[in-house]
Amino acid sequence: MFDNLNGLVVIGIVVAVVLVAIPAIVLAFLRDVPSGVIRIVSWMQGSTVIYRGPCKAKEVPLFTIGTEVPSSAINVDINITDQTADLGPDNIPAPIKVTVEASAIVSIGETDEMIQTAANRFFSKDEREQMSTLQDLLSSSGRRAINLLTHDQLFSAKATSKGLAIEPVARTGDDEDDDPLAIIIKRACSKELTDLGLTFKSLNIKSVLSEVAEARRRQSAAEANANANIVQAVQDRRAQEAALEAQRVISDKERVLAETRAQNAVLIARAERERQLALADQRAAELKATTVAGATAEAEIAVINAEAEGKAQAKKIIAVAEATAEGISKINAAVREGGETYLRYRQLELLPELAPGIADALAQAKMITIAGGDGPGAPAQATSQISAVLQTVLAANILGSAGVMPPPGALRPVDNGGTAATRG
């Protein structure tokens, strides 16, 4: 039992050693290479292997030597003050002092040879010396570029190397996007950077300063200000013209409106006059109609009154006539019935009243008696006529006492067949 326990312990120890030793051995042969770092592994026989991170570098302790260099870009600030290649009249040099502030970007080469050269010649120095080397190299190239460029070329946005006092070289795609200063610096320092195992990536010009540029800037500012003032003046003038045009349009519209109002006022006045005339005609017609209607009504009323009065008078006359006729009829009937007795009685009764009337009637009567040969004699006819007068007077008095007035001519002496006539 004790032997078995010892065997298990030994097995556990062996397993633990294996699990710990194997990773340690692997880690001893493999090394991590982070991004932005290039690891160079040199073997003892002189061969070199370059690992670009992130990756694993294979190394054998005691048989290899490894070193690391950065693969990231290096930013170098440069400040260059020099003179340009400007020419005055008659091609006399007239350089302009300029100051260029720029930022250059360089990095380690892509090939293994350039990487080994950079590791041996550049990255073997400390960081301060590295930066000083790059600044001196780029500044010298920049001064050479300034001496080859004119003032206007330095301020140009994009340009080609045509007309520059440098050797023509084949341009790459990157050169097409660079300005002349960057192109010249790149060409001027490319050999020196290659000797250090580095490559030129780009140049960012921060500013280009000169008295001419400042004067031009002030001139440009003045021109811009003048142009702005001109533009403002033009805009103000256009605004005033637009305002005047708007006022003119408004004035025209107001004038048209005033004319329209005047025309409308004239039309309204005419319409009012026509209305007044029509109203006057209407009133005259109404007055005339009222007058005519009043006259017609009065005439009709007069006619109606006349007709009524005539009808009443006619009725009265008819009534009187009828009463007279009835009275006479009654008297005649009474005479016929009473005969001579009634007549004589009435004559005697009315004799005191009739005497004056009979005398007056006989006095005014003009009686002419003509006797015919076959009739009674003249005395008889005269007696008959006197009797007729007496009868007439008697009848009138009888009717008057009865309240009946005979119409004129209703009572006349009766002609008894003679030719005698009584006229009052």
Describe the protein's topology.
Blueprint: H1 2-29, E1 30-33, E2 37-43, E3 48-52, E4 55-58, E5 64-70, E6 74-83, E7 97-108, H2 112-122, H3 127-148, H4 151-154, H5 173-176, H6 180-195, E8 198-210, H7 211-364, H8 378-401
Antiparallel strand pairs: 1-4, 2-3, 2-5, 6-7, 7-8
Helix pairs in contact: 3-6, 7-8
- Specify the number of helices: 8
Uncertain segments: 157-173, 409-424
Rounded average pLDDT: 74
- Quickly give the structural class: alpha+beta
Spatial order of strands in the largest sheet: 3-2-5
What's the gyration radius in Å? 83 Å
Sequence of secondary-structure elements: HEEEEEEEHHHHHEHH
Helix content: 55-70%
**Largest sheet descriptor:** 3 strands, antiparallel
Distance between the termini: 213 Å
Q: What's the number of extended β-strand segments?
A: 8
Please state roughly what percent of the residues sit in beta strands, choosing from under 5%, 5-15%, 15-25%, 25-35%, 35-45% or over 45%. 5-15%
Overall shape: it is rod-shaped
